[in-house]
Amino acid sequence: MFKSKHFEYYRTASVLLIALLLTFIIISFVSGQPLHTIYIFLYEPISSLSHFGNVVEMAIPLTFTGLALALLFKMNMFNLGAEGTFYFAGLMASFIAIRISMNGALHPLVCIMFGGIVGAAISAIPGWLKAKWDVNELVTSLMFNSILYGVGQYLLNYKLRDSAAYQTASFKFESTAVLSKLIPGTRIHTGLIIVIVCVILAHLFMYKTRWGYELRMTGANREFAEYSGIKTGRVIIYVHLLAGLIAGIGGSVEVLGMYSRFQWNALPGYGMDGALVAMIAKNSPIGVVGAALFLAYIRVGADMMSRYSDVPSEMISIIQAIILLLVSADQFLKFWKNRMLLKEAQKHA
Amino acid sequence: MHDFFAVILTTDFAYSVLRVTTPILFAALGALISNRAGIVNIGLEGIMLTSALMGVLISAYTGSAWVGLLGAALGGVLMAGMLAFFTLQFKTHLILGGIAINAFAAGGTIFVLYMLTGDKGTSSSLSSKVLPSIDIPLIKDIPVLGPIISGHHVLTYMSIIAAIVVYYMLKRTPLGLQIRAVGENIHAAESVGIKVKKVQYIALLLSGLFASLGGAYMSMGYLSLFTRNMTAGRGWIALAAESMGRSTAVGTTVTSFLFGFAQALSNALQLLKIPAELISTVPYVATVLGLVFYSISVSRKANKLMNKPK
Question: Interface pTM (ipTM) of the complex?
Fold first, then answer.
């Protein structure tokens, strides 16, 4: 019935179930009306078209950053720069969307491409440092997040800020730059199409091209890949470029699809959530879609919960941490796999 | 430029370098111990943040700053214990485990703060206690040196003592020897009968203890309350300091001061007319530059060894 070769799926499913159970336990400790709160948490995200629209809207940026991190993780690179890249590319896209007037169909495309290229360039720096001198990419990428945030806030406050706006925000985007809505009754925008294209291209890249093969080889064992003639330094750099491009496109799409001004006054957090998405998806581009939808679902659930009940939405980051800890645990539920293997062996004997 | 030196060449500035180095030094010592045992403790940031909140909460509810410090230490060690349990028992990926700990702390502290005070930003509604500052007799009367060295927070002095203790512990004690043996070669250590897992547990818990003192300092000295994400990347800067310090106690201490200097600079320069947003990036830029220079020098050395004629 249970096959050991599907073990990874069972384990991921168990982890998600455990996480949900834990959510219920925490809710019943802190909430005055636990059952009602759980009901809101589980049901509200799918209760109406517009709420389900919220789930899809949130899944779009999560898919972008999840894809970017899946590429990097697959190569065994722990670069968490997608966070800063996403933010900064969004700001750069806003620059074009505010300052330059253009023909309708072209404008968003130019903004998004510009954001993507800036993202690729930023992301390449830690990659290049890693490939050339083995500089720890995790620390540099995290420092870059803080640096990009500081520079971004400077640009927003001194170059783009609209003092007439009710909060710290940029001038309004040109109406030609804003992505149009796709489904009436929701805020789902044409970014959905872009993200689906990105997922398919990333999948083809990873599994059907020579570069993707080189990526996977480098990730499995960098020294072995080097000996078999792969220039791993080059692989590291182009994967960083690609990951930055995807994160950059993601940031630009998010800004142009969801807002009419640039108004992030903190790092939006999608880069960090992308790490979780990539892990749940086991770094598979197709899997990223499912993982992003799952995460978006519980995030929207948590949002609704904080709005309609007494439990704050930050609870969900505790759950996210537990998922991350368990999903990347090699030994977790290993006994189950061993038992499956044993049974299969006995059957064949 | 004149203004710049007018800011730096003051006893106030030198005093503030010591003040801002404290949390970085504590965390870097934590990074050092676990790294020496072969485990990179990515969770430092989260451990510090948890301790910062614990210190505030416990001191507010017991009315004693020292009990608060104890609570902070306990919170940090518990977080480190959680990381140790998952990475050593369940074989969770080291880096992802650490990232999870940080995420847990970032959201968890806000969650707990909100549940207890109804505020998601700061703990200003709690009357938490602050640990005392100490004037050193005699030294405090020496001109120039006195105002720099004396009158610091008790944890600032403890961080210097901690550096000496860690130096001695790693160099001279059986535990230090075991930690280094495990980090050097885990199989060799196992073959001579060292209980590898136990040593790694101890190293991680100690790492958590030191980081937690840094966290306690943040909310019970540097500031007198908890604010969300108040550690602001210091755990990561500490990791960079440790690796630039070549995993030695002396090197780590020196580089911690270097990054403390950058942080103090960023605080002091806010007096000048440079946009605060840009100034705030100085410590992070310094960290990246430091790490890059260090890595270049290491890879140069490695190349030289490789090309040496036999």
Answer: 0.84
